[in-house]
Design brief:
The complex is a heterodimer. By secondary structure, chain A is of the alpha/beta class. Chain A contains six helices and nine strands, in the order E-H-E-H-E-E-E-E-H-E-H-E-H-E-H. By secondary structure, chain B is α/β, with parallel strands linked by helices. Chain B has two domains: 70 residues, no CATH class; 191 residues, Rossmann fold (3-Layer(aba) Sandwich). The mean pLDDT of chain B is 94. Classes of the chains: A alpha/beta, B alpha/beta. At the A-B interface, strand 5, strand 6 and helix 3 of A face helix 2 of B.
Chain lengths: 197, 278
């Protein structure tokens, strides 16, 4: 990658619930090895889940996919998944922090917690994506991203395995883009290419 | 940076300074993201408009400060959280402890005590309760009082019971509590050998000669510097050969103390201080 990285965006955050693994596979598998942004993901899952999700996504993707570690430094071109039973937050120094505070929207990890914290750190340089799910987690987070000037994206409910979550996000936020599942990966890739002059 | 955002960050730093100077609680080396989330949460539940207003209120109103203190120290815990951890205690730690005539256990940051009672149950079932003393400490007096009562909401008992079985429970979980309306009262005998007391990991010193220290999901709220300080405190509070247990996403590796410990169980985050007992 020659030249100056003159970027508009610095990070992508994604939230998904039921049907999430499949949707994530569709999106992440089209991101190329030189994808220039970190992708930080929260998916609702069982508190005692093992590392199957990370392994299966890592297997499917060119980018490396790993579970978030406590106080880990965020790196470009890596896909991070929040560990089960912990909230994921981001520090000003662009490292991860984890928390076991109360479930938010009955979820830990909660999409809102990640999105709100990322919006406070990245401001207008953040892309937030809400995918399939059966609840309304992510609404407040996406609102915060919008308020801080970031880019908001929601999966078209008709292409979602569970449509409540994208529907709630669309109703509450008026997102910048509502995209069918298959177009989200190429769209993110376009944003990333735009970054590398 | 967004002007509001910048102001909020300044206000939070000042708030933390104010708490330290007025009340002596030192949050200066806490990880900021979660701390500011909790301050914001208290703000939205109050009729205060800004964090600066909150600062004024906490300086002049001690009871408000005590409410905020409860927010800032995360008090979410459960019985037998991560059952596989407690299972590993049974298999990897208890046999070693059984060789000691007397066992000292320290639960640092015990919050409302759910893990303390879990450990008390485990020690009883393993037949070492008589020779064990559990020191359960927290920085917050109010949660210690809660812990001492041993009352748990009845709605949680089903999950705790499942955790207990997964953790290798040898009896029936219902043997350990009495249900009363909306709550479950944990058996008094469980806390016979438990001493609850105030201890602040940031400002207080070594807590001596422990055989086992359990501090799970406390260090995640600290920055690197404070984490290293506390790991040093734990090392100096353990006997040679003593055990240190952390939360499932916490690690002793890559810290200043990693050379002083060996790994007993990687996934369960159980470590052992090097050296032979004198």
């Amino acid at each position: 990658m020659e030249g100056v990285v003159k970027s508009k965006y610095r990070a992508v955050v994604i939230g998904a619930s039921s049907g999430g693994l499949k949707a994530l596979k569709t999106i992440l598998s089209v991101l190329p090895g030189d994808f220039a942004l970190p992708v930080i993901i929260v998916v609702h899952r069982h508190p005692n889940a093992d590392g199957y999700m990370e392994e299966s996504l890592d297997h499917k993707c060119t980018l490396s996919v790993k579970q978030v570690d406590e106080k880990e430094k965020i790196q470009n071109g890596v896909v991070y998944i929040g560990p089960p039973n912990y909230h994921v937050l981001i520090e000003d120094t662009r490292i991860f922090s984890l928390s076991v505070e109360e479930a938010v929207n009955y979820a830990r990890p909660s999409i809102d917690v990640l999105f709100e914290s990322a919006a406070d750190v990245y401001g207008p340089e953040l892309v937030g994506v809400v995918l399939t799910g059966n609840n309304d987690d992510g609404v407040r987070g996406l609102q915060r991203i919008k308020r801080r000037g970031g880019l908001t994206v929601v999966q078209t409910p008709e292409t979602a395995e569970a449509e409540s979550m994208p529907k709630a996000a669309i109703a509450a936020v008026d997102p910048d883009h509502v995209l069918p599942l298959k177009e989200i990966g190429p769209f993110l890739n376009g944003l990333s290419i735009f970054n590398i002059q | 940076m967004d002007n509001n955002l910048e102001n909020e960050k300044i206000e939070i730093d000042l708030l933390i300074q104010a708490i330290f100077r007025k009340y002596g609680y030192d949050f200066r080396n806490y990880a900021k993201a979660s701390l500011s989330r909790r301050v914001q949460q208290r703000l939205s539940r109050s009729n205060l408009k800004t964090i600066s207003e909150m600062q004024h209120k906490l300086l002049y109103d001690q009871s408000f400060f005590e409410t905020l203190l409860l927010d800032l120290t995360i008090n979410v815990t459960e019985m037998f959280r991560d059952p596989y951890f407690f299972k590993a205690i049974r298999t990897s730690v208890i046999p070693e402890l059984k060789r000691q005539p007397f066992i000292k256990v320290w639960h640092a940051g015990c919050s409302s005590g759910e893990e303390v009672y879990s450990m008390a149950i485990l020690l009883k079932e393993e037949g070492v309760a008589q020779t064990a003393r559990i020191y359960a400490t927290d920085t917050n007096e109010a949660v210690l009082q809660e812990a001492e009562k041993g009352i748990v909401s009845i709605g949680k008992m089903q999950q705790y019971s499942r955790n207990y079985m997964d953790a290798g429970g040898m009896s029936s979980f219902s043997d350990y509590y009495t249900a009363r309306y909306e709550s479950a009262l944990l058996n008094k005998t469980l806390r016979k050998n438990v001493v609850f007391s105030c201890h602040n990991l940031v400002t207080d010193g070594v807590f001596g000669e422990m055989d086992l220290i359990i501090c799970r999901n406390v260090l995640i709220y600290f920055n690197d510097e404070l984490q290293n300080h506390v790991f040093g405190l734990f090392r100096d509070s353990l006997c040679p050969g003593g055990f240190l247990c952390l939360g499932s996403k916490e690690s002793l590796m890559f810290t200043q103390c990693s050379d002083d410990f060996e790994i007993v169980a990687e996934r369960e985050k159980i470590y052992r201080k090097k050296g032979k007992r004198g």
